[in-house]
Amino acid sequence: YKPAKFNLLVKLSGWFRSILSDKTSRNLFFFLCLNLSFAFVELSYGIWSNSLGLISDSFHMFFDCTALLAGLAASVISRWRSNDSFSYGYVRAEVLAGFVNGLFLIFTAFFIFSEGVERALEPPNVNHDRLLPVSIAGLLVNLVGIFVFQHGGHGHSHGGEDQLTPGKGASKQILQGVLLHIIADTLGSVGVIISALLMQRYDLMIADPICSMLISLLIGVSVVPLLKESIGILMQRTPPSLDQKLPESYQRVQQLQGVYNLQDPHFWTLCTDVYIGTLKLLVAPDADTRWILSQTHNIFTQAGVRQLYVQIETASM
Amino acid sequence: MACEPNRVRLLCMLSLTFVFFIVEVVVSRMTSSLSMLSDSFHMLSDVIALIVALVAVRFAEKTHATDKNTFGWIRAEVMGALVNAIFLTALCFTIVLEAVERFTEPHAIESPLVVAGVGAGGLLINLLGLCLFHGHAGSGHGHSHGGHSHGNKNKRGKNSQCENSGNGSSGEETNNLVGNHNSQGDVRPQNEISCKDSTDVQMNGNPHFEDMDHDLDTSQLNMRGVFLHVLGDALGSVIVVVTAIIFTFVWQPCIEGETCMNPCINSHSTDHQHVNHTLVDLLEGPTMSAMKFAGPCWVLYLDPTLCIIMVCILLYTTYPLLKESALILLQTVPKQINMHRLNERLLTLEGVLAIHELHIWQLAGSRIIATAHIKCHDPTSYMEVAKRIKDFFHNEGIHATTIQPEFVTFSSESRDSLCELSCRTQCAPKLCCGSADKKDMKAIGDGKAAAASALEVISETLEQAAGDQVPPLSDAEITVTREVESSL
User: Fold this and answer.
1) Are A86 and B330 inside 8 Å of each other by CB?
2) Which residue of B75, B208, B254, B275 shows the fewest CB atoms closer than 10 Å?
3) Cβ contact A101:A70 at 8 Å
4) Taking 80 as the threshold, does the pLDDT of residue B465 lie above it?
5) How far apart are CA B174 and CA B217, in angstroms?
6) What pLDDT, on a 0 to 100 scale, did the predictor assign at position B267?
7) pLDDT at residue B202 above 80?
């Protein structure tokens, strides 16, 4: 893919327009800006007041921003046209983005867990007074994010645009990853607030690490479905939604006149809702291949597979 | 078979690292040193990376198809490599975080000699791991040549003497993957020898050789991920040892009982009682003539600086691995294959009128899968054309192909480039890539007009033929000219 040698500015403005055109990526972009600005504010306040807790919390927010950035990049990239190197286009980027986000989340959970263990063994005298209002503000920001992205699923991206863009189902993976990340952050803020309150009222120093560990476990558990789904897609697994319909379709194809056998079926998901399949048919020498081909395509289109490659092999009599 | 040494090495390294992790945790409790504890967590992340690689290797051995995974579990190794690469990147972020924390709040290492000792132990283990996994990456080349018959990849512009093969081989492919130039010298002569044998074996597509090629290729990616992880850990241990040693020799700590001041540490730190003690002393006024200073301060900043340098090195070496595995998972056309030329050469085959929807992607390693629609004259000539096309793909090194035939109808001579069997409902958003073909969308229910060349659909004749027992249609009745891509 060799784009014309535009200068960087033109390319950037092109991406910008592309981002603003689709509702999902618009939301992602604005939330990313919101998160980034909040993180910068927190960082500068932390440096100015020399509070280590605030600085490390702002770095956590930067880490979350990378997840948002990955989702945004994926939603832009998956709309690019296909070319010589990417014959299927870039639509798989969204699956990859969901997977990467899930991995980052697991890593964050692991990291929080280890920090919790460290603090449990050696509780530092952390000053929580400054952390409380900041985490409340962070909680508000994240609640905004949850609200926006929970409703953001119905971005009708194929309203009047060219038919080459993937439908709204394509954003599903990205949004799921981003939403999980925001929920994880919200849980973190909630945990900080609860532990701060517990420590102030009841002087339970152990509350902080226990809260962290609980939160990390919650995050880990919530990420599992997303990971399972993306791993399934990336491993070229037969699409789960077709699990029932495929055997029926095989039956129907084998009952066509002239078809001896159906061999070697491979069905996999390219991205959300786009299924691709290949199979081989052993047919009689006098069979009408054209008819068999179109019938087979018909049968599988009804099952939901729109890209099918049928190889015909004539049995030698 | 060839994966056995992989598993053994991984298990070996895993057990060593795990034991050392336990040792580090115990030592950190005994000396109550926080840095040792965090280093032990790095070891734990190493253990996790090894477990991921091991799981990937185990899974990828199941190459046969299952009900749900019709391609087998081969891709597990690419996934393992990706997971490890992402894990490393995230780890780098954490290290940067910790380094910045240390910059704002430096604290001295307590009992540096113990730390140095444990760090040296960790370094030894990591060096051992480096040898284990680096050595494997080299020997992988040796294996792949013995059995490599037709790993013929089409290298642009490079033609070897063997007429059937390009210079590409699995060895070259792993050169692309691993960037290991040492064995390139081995690649060439063996390649040419085995090429002469390959012409015989090619037609049959001996699966045994193919398995050997493939297994070693994919494992390279996985092992590279592990190697990079161990490398990162080794660098970390080096930093620990270096800083601890410098600390013992250069740093003059504040000893209890003496009045000295630690000018490097800000009053925000809470675990240095020296500071409070000495500040109180100062305030109370007894002017001591000999004031000792804990010093020199730059030693405290050595650790985070080295950490940041290490992060840069790690990120630089991890990026190619990340890119490579991500590209495979994105269904890219493999690097060695030039789609354009392939297309042209396919068109020169006898009996091939047009090619549509050619997709070539890499399952894992050297297993490349291609699908295409190929237009040919009529069903009787189809089988020979099919054989020719299969051979052609074999020569390119692509062995899993599915080719769908498309037959010319009498009225569509001039529209070779259009597809015949594309779907008739509102498929456009559901198709992967409607780039070159203009499909006729008879949008049912959606009312979406689609750009299309005006082609009539077979729909009427097909709906008549919806029943199972239908006599074959003659050419004259078929008015459909929507050309479908025939994938052979």
Assistant:
1) yes
2) B208
3) yes
4) no
5) 6
6) 47
7) no
Residue A107: alpha-carbon gap to chain centroid: 16
Q: What per-residue confidence (pLDDT) applies to A63? A: 78
Range name among B17-21, B135-139, B285-289 with the lowest pLDDT average: B285-289
pLDDT at B119: 84
Residue in B76, B97, B434 nearest the CB of A163: B434
CA torsion angle A227 A231 A234 A236 (round to 10): -140
How would you classify the pairing of strands B400-407 and B367-376?
parallel
Instruction: Supply B56's token pair.
Output: 């990937």
- Identity of residue A154: H
- Nearest Cα residue to A89 out of B293, B429, B207: B429
Rg (CA), chain B: 32
B99 Cβ under 8 Å from any chain A Cβ: no
Our CA-based measurement puts residue A84 at a distance from the nearest CA of chain B, in whole angstroms, of 6
**Is residue A46 very low, low, confident or very high in pLDDT (cuts 50, 70, 90)?**
confident
Residue B355 backbone dihedrals phi, psi, to 5 degrees: -125, 135
- Which residues face A308 on adjacent strands? A277
Of residues B48, B423, B472, nearest to A301 (C-beta): B423
Number of A to B CB contacts under 8 A, please give it: 213
Of the residues A298, A305, A314, the best mutation for testing chain B's interface (the one with the most B CB atoms within 10 Å of its CB) is A298
Return the minimum-mean-pLDDT range out of B120-124, B384-388, B431-435, B458-462: B458-462
Please indicate whether, in this complex, the C-beta atoms of B432 and A124 are within 8 angstroms of each other: no
Distance CA(B105)–CA(B441), nearest Å, equals 65
Considering only the C-alpha atoms of chain A, give the largest distance between any 2 of them, rounded to a whole number of Å.
88
Q: Is the dihedral of CA A34, A39, A40, A44 positive or negative?
A: positive
| A99 closest CA partner among A260, A224, A9 | A224
Contact A87 B76 (CB under 8 A): no
Query: What residues in B contact A314, CB-CB < 8 Å?
Result: 382-383
Answer yes or no: are the C-beta atoms of B411 and B418 closer than 8 Å: no
* Residue A305: CA count within 13 A, CB half-sphere: 29
Highest mean pLDDT among B28-37, B90-99, B172-181, B460-469: B90-99
What does the alpha-carbon distance between residue B242 and residue B236 come to, in Å, rounded to a whole number?
A: 10
Mutate to test the interface with A, among B84, B430, B460 (most CBs of A within 10 A): B430
Please tell me the predicted confidence (pLDDT) of residue B34.
64
3-state helix, strand, coil in chain A (%, to 5): 65, 10, 25
pLDDT in tens, A49-78: 766 667 767 777 787 888 888 888 888 888
- Helix ranges (H only) for A128-260 are 131-151, 172-202, 207-234, 245-254
